Amino acid sequence: MISINTNTASSMAAYNLSGTNVQLQRSLQRLSSGSRINSSFDDAGGLAVSMKLSAAIRRTEATQANVNNAVSFLQTQDGVLKNAEKVLTRLSELAQLSSDVTKSTSDKALYQTEYDALTTALSALSEEKFNDIELFDSGGGVGLTVVTSQDGTQSITITQADFSSILTKVGGVTLSDSSGATAVEIDDLTDAVQELATLRATNGSEQQRMTFAADLLAINKVNLESANSRIADLDIAAESANLARLNILQQAGTAMLAQANMATQSVLRLLV
């Protein structure tokens, strides 16, 4: 049947061309953004998973920053402990020198002056802070808890080293007496050095644990990014091939629509 009012071929060609144009625009959008999912229409389920993975990546980055700051805290603490080691070493040396029977009272008085100055310096070291957080806690606190996983289920407690026992052992030592420091006082200083060595060893082990935690977070971040990429990122090669196909379909559809519109002109021959 030949009719004028209805051109089914033209309508179908227009419908197909419209669909091709929509797909072409989406393909261009994907290529220009580099993302396979630009709206929930593209992949509703994939978008939901990608959003959760993206949030996990950001939390992992934040956790990495927190762990690295904790490592800096421990490094600063160890730096202070290293200086304290030098002070304690000198204090024990002065105590031993004061027991020398060949030293005069004035010599021992000089030792005492230096000893007192160093104990004051040691006490000042115990009050050092990192970003206004106490490096050392004389109150026997439980330390600082550092979250080491992006979901908050894992944590490591770092120690605010207790300096009070060391300060007690080095305080009140008298070098200016005729006999100098007593055997008990020298023994206390030796114990103080041992305690400081324990604090440094504890600090080192905590730095190791925090470093391992930071490495694990870095690996987890890479894996999360890789998983999210497989869902959300565009395969440029495949989409370029798809774009070429859609361009050909668009051109073919435009040509066929023109042909369909020309078909009704055959009616004029019947009327002439």
Task: Walk me through what this model shows.
This protein has seven helices and four strands; from the N terminus they run H-H-H-E-E-E-E-H-H-H-H. The protein is mainly α. The protein folds into two domains: 8-34 and 234-271; 60-231, f41 fragment of flagellin, N-terminal domain. The longest helix is centred in the N-terminal third of the chain and has 55 residues, at 44-98. The two termini are 19 Å apart.
List the helices and strands and how they pair.
Layout: H1 8-33, H2 44-98, H3 105-125, E1 129-130, E2 133-134, E3 144-147, E4 155-158, H4 164-170, H5 183-232, H6 236-263, H7 266-271
Antiparallel strand pairs: 1-2, 3-4
Quick structural gist:
This protein has helices spanning 8-33, 44-98, 105-125, 164-170, 183-232, 236-263, 266-271, and strands spanning 129-130, 133-134, 144-147, 155-158.
